Task: structure prediction
Amino acid sequence: MTLKKEKLLKWLKYGAYVLAGGAVLCTAGYVFLNNPGMGKLQLRSHFRKDGLEKVGYDSAIAANWQAVIDFVTHWTRNHPYKCPICDKFHLGHRH
Ligand SMILES: [Zn+2]
Result:
C-alpha cells in the first residue's frame, strides 16, 4: 500500500512540475512574443485619468513583463499597446 501511495505522490509532484513549467513557458512566450498593437490616437492613450503622463516603456518586452507583474501583484489585466503620441509602450485597459 505504501508503495502505491509513494507512486501517486511521485506523479503528483511530476504533475506540479509540468504545471509550473507550463506557466513559466506561457509567461515567457507572452513576454517575448506578444506584439502590442497600436493604441487609439486619443489623449487618454498617453495620459492617465488624472492628467499625468503614463509610464512609457521603450520595448514591447518591458511592457509585456510589466503587464505580467501587474497581473500577479494587483490581479489587474492591463494590455500593452504602442502609443501613437510618444511612440513608446503604455499599459492600459483595452478600450
Ligand atoms: Zn505615450
About this structure: The CA atoms of residues 48 and 54 lie 6 Å apart. The two ends are 57 Å apart (CA to CA). The first helix runs from residue 2 to 33.
